[in-house]
Design a protein that fits this description.
By secondary structure, the chain is an alpha+beta fold. The protein contains seven helices and ten strands. The protein has a seven-stranded antiparallel beta sheet with strand order 3-4-5-9-8-7-6, with helices on both faces. The N terminus is likely disordered.
C-alpha cells in the first residue's frame, strides 16, 4: 500500500513540476496572479545547492534553493487548480511538504525556463529499482491526466549511479514540455530528480540531467 502511495506522490510531482514551468512561461501579470517562480524558491547565487538534506551542483545558467513549507503549499494549491484530476493526489504534499528538497530554474532568456525539482520519495528503500520500474510501467499510464504521456521507462546507469529513468511528454496551457525523471537510492532513502524543459532544449537536456544526478549527495537534514 505504501508503495502505491509513492506512485501517487510521483504523479503529483509531475503535475507540480509542469505547473511551475508553465507559470514561469506566462506573462508577468498572469504570473503575479498565480504563483511566481521567485516566490516558490529561495535562490542562491552559488551553483552548489546544499541544505534540506541534499547537496548537488547546478550547471552553468541555473540558480536554485530550498523552498519553505509555505512556498511548497502555495505551489501545490495552484497545481491542483491547473490539474483537477490530481487534486486528491496533491494531498500527499499537505502531509509533509518538506519532502520537496530543492527547486532550481534556468536563468537564460528562453521563453520556457528549464526547471529542476528534487524530492525524497515516500517509498521504502527495501523496494528494488526493478520493482519501482515495473510498478511505474503498470500504474502510471492509466493514472496520468490527459496532459501527460509516458514515453520511456528504463533502468540505466548515470555515471556510477543506477537509476530508473522516466520520460514524460507534457502539453499544458498550449506549452509543449518534456520531463526527464531519475529515481535512485542513496543510503536508506529514495530520491527523485525531475528535470522539465521545452522541446527546443532537448539536445542540451541530458548533460544537465546527468550532472545533477552525478553530483547528488544526501546530507543531514537540518
Amino acid at each position: 500500500m505504501r508503495f502505491l502511495y509513492g506512485i501517487g506522490f510521483n504523479i503529483a510531482l509531475l503535475g507540480l513540476s509542469a505547473h511551475l514551468s508553465a507559470i514561469a512561461a506566462t506573462p508577468p501579470a498572469a504570473a503575479v496572479q498565480a504563483t511566481t517562480i521567485d516566490r516558490i524558491a529561495i535562490y542562491d547565487s552559488s551553483r552548489t545547492i546544499k541544505g534540506n538534506g541534499v547537496e548537488f551542483k547546478l550547471p552553468t545558467g541555473f540558480k536554485g534553493g530550498s523552498p519553505s513549507n509555505a512556498q511548497t503549499r502555495a505551489a501545490i494549491a495552484q497545481t491542483a487548480k491547473m490539474f483537477p484530476s490530481m487534486a486528491s493526489i496533491m494531498q500527499v504534499f499537505e502531509n509533509d511538504p518538506s519532502i520537496v528538497r530543492a527547486i532550481a530554474t534556468s536563468t537564460d532568456s528562453q521563453q520556457v525556463p528549464s526547471m529542476v525539482l528534487v524530492t525524497q520519495l515516500p517509498i521504502p528503500a527495501s523496494v528494488s529499482l526493478a520493482e519501482i520500474q515495473e510498478m511505474m510501467a503498470k500504474f502510471i499510464p492509466s493514472m496520468l491526466p490527459p496532459e501527460f504521456t509516458l514515453v520511456e521507462n528504463q533502468i540505466l546507469n548515470v555515471g556510477s549511479r543506477q537509476i530508473v529513468r522516466l520520460s514524460i511528454d507534457v502539453n499544458v496551457q498550449g506549452i509543449q514540455l518534456k520531463e526527464s525523471i531519475g529515481l535512485f537510492k542513496t543510503g536508506n532513502q529514495i530520491f527523485q530528480v525531475t528535470y522539465v524543459y521545452d522541446n527546443e532544449s532537448s539536445q542540451q537536456a541530458m548533460p544537465v540531467f546527468e550532472q545533477i544526478i552525478n553530483t547528488f549527495k544526501a546530507t543531514s537534514k537540518t
